[in-house]
Amino acid sequence: MQGLMQSVPLLISSLLAHVERHHGDADIVSRRVEGDLHRYTWADCAGRARQVARALDAQGLPFSGRVATLAWNGYRHLELYYGVSGSGRVLHTLNPRLHADQIAWIVNHAEDQVLCFDLTFLPAVQAMHASCPTVEKWVALCDADRLPAGSGIPNLVSYEHWIGAQPGRYAWPDFDENSACGMCYTSGTTGHPKAVLYSHRSTVLHACAAALPDAMNLSARDAVLPVVPMFHVNAWGLPYSAAMVGAKLVLPGAAMDGKSIFELIETEGVTFAAGVPTVWQTMLGHMQANDLRFSTLGRTVIGGSACPPAMIDAFRERYGVEVLHAWGMTEVSPLGTLCTLKRKHLSLPRGEQAAIRLKQGRALFGVDMKIVGSGGEELPWDGKAAGNLLVKGPWVVKAYFKGEDGDPLVPDAQRRGWFPTGDVATIDADGYLQITDRSKDVIKSGGEWISSIDIENIALSHPAVAMAACVGVFHPRWGERPVIVVARKPGSEVTRDELLKFYDGKAAKWQIPDDVVFVEAIPLGPTGKMLKTTLREQLRGYQLTEAR
Ligand code: ADP
Fold first, then answer.
1. Which of 186, 271, 421, 527 is catalytic?
2. Pairing between β-strand 322-328 and β-strand 335-338 as defined by DSSP bridges
3. Which residues pair with 67 in a beta bridge?
4. If you average pLDDT over residues 51-69, what whole number do you get?
5. CA of 393 to the centre of ligand 1 (A)
6. Is 331 a catalytic residue?
């Protein structure tokens, strides 16, 4: 017997219709590329998203046709999020920090037909447009009078002209909730990038789970600032979750420096922000240097790479902001786990609570996870056994778009597919996940694994250290030994020997790095994470100064 409830598809357009009807006057504030602040409401956004849909109809772009964006977090980008997906096309967010050749490769692979870009990225578009034959229309996200003359880009229009001619009346179409709504390429540190193709259903379910109290706890009382870019796994789903709950949205545009972000938080009364650790590092540096305090910020989600304990401490103890440490990846939409305490933890001493908060947290409802050994055997949830992390769920990838690499899932005993994340983790008896490494970053010394994250976190607790990356270098006896690459805080001093001594009593002797390499800055990848592949490349052939 089937249930007798309505079968209403979960569509991106339903989020917009909801926020327009119930929270139409909630604000959306964007810092524009031009530098000024733009303000309007969710109702205004919905009207213009309908104009986007009409413009795509007028162009004859088919269902599932791809519309790419090269854009910062801003209101026009948000309108594309809803107008493109809501009308049945696929929004393809490109990462502008990639090289123009890589972007062109991705555009061709995705067969994008329209490409919308912020003027900041005009040089990249000029460099690549000739090698993107599938793109029929280039849209500059600006007013008609700012359209660059003599750019050499064919079929170039300004966004305002493109949508301006369209009426705001449009009925969002109904279709199968499993249709594709968006795509995002992984950064492709090995080989070509791979495309994850999200569906309406996966995106709406993810937005719902992300908003829950034990996840991001979002509501109509929040002002949400996604510092994480809208080209980095859909800003972790925040443009969707914010609409679902009717939150105010604050979009930082291109101004990602600590001073601008801090000012935006203060002037717009931001209560909730999200970003990768490197972004917060700069903001905390700015606040410390200028003795600043937050007046409204209550929570921040930090993920994308391990959040150093020193950062969690600074936010909590110095600034009174709760840090929610989260784990996710492009293939998981991205949220898999988020760290909040359970009721039984509330009576624990602060130190023990702090130790739990360092972990990446518990699985959201919908995400199933397990850790397995090298033979595929499931490992215990004892907080000690570390193994390869596998996940599955309704917002976890099943196969890559044009999946040349075949099925990425591994069959388990019940023949149900699990996605191998490439991360190494422990899970404790309460279900708290702790990432110890990426499988390719693990350092194997004399057959034992050393967690590069642990070694980095100790370095980061030294007051003179701004950033630290631990990588393995060849050692004739041990196979590999850890070396810590360190960027010092401006004006701070610490020597190699002082830093190595700092490890005494904080790590087992055999885990202490063999050497320290000081650098001006640690190279960062397109999503703001430390590029360990580049560091390993730079340290190839590195001779350890003292054999252990
Ligand atoms: P990429 O880093 O390759 O661009 P993603 O943005 O999808 O791709 O990153 C996913 C990876 O980032 C995860 O597999 C994991 O290694 C790492 N990661 C994400 N969040 C955390 C976290 N909180 N702690 C440690 N590692 C994390």
1. 186
2. antiparallel
3. 91, 114
4. 98
5. 18
6. yes
CA distance 512 to 262: 36
Alpha helices of 300-423 — where are they, by DSSP H?
Answer: 309-313, 350-357
387-402 as b/e: b if 16+ CB within 10 A: bbbbbbbebbbbebbe
Concerning whether 186 is annotated as a catalytic residue, the answer is: yes
pTM over 0.70: yes
**Cα-to-centroid distance, 486 and ligand 1 (Å):** 21
Residues 6 or more apart whose CB falls under 8 angstroms from that of 322 comprise 298, 299, 300, 315, 316
**What is the tens place of the pLDDT at every residue in 94-130?**
999 888 888 999 999 999 999 999 999 999 999 999 9
Q: Is 248 a catalytic residue?
A: no
Question: Tokens 């709950």 belong to which residue?
Answer: 245
> What tokens appear for 483 in the block?
């070396």
CA of 88 to the centre of ligand 1 (A): 29
* Residue of 435, 438, 530 best suited for mutating to test ligand 1, as the one with most atoms within 8 Å of CB: 435
- CA 2 to each of CA 6, 7, 9: distance values in angstroms, whole numbers, following the listed order: 11, 11, 17
Q: Which residues contact 90 (CB under 8 A, 6 or more apart)?
A: 64, 65, 66, 67, 84, 180, 181, 182, 183, 197
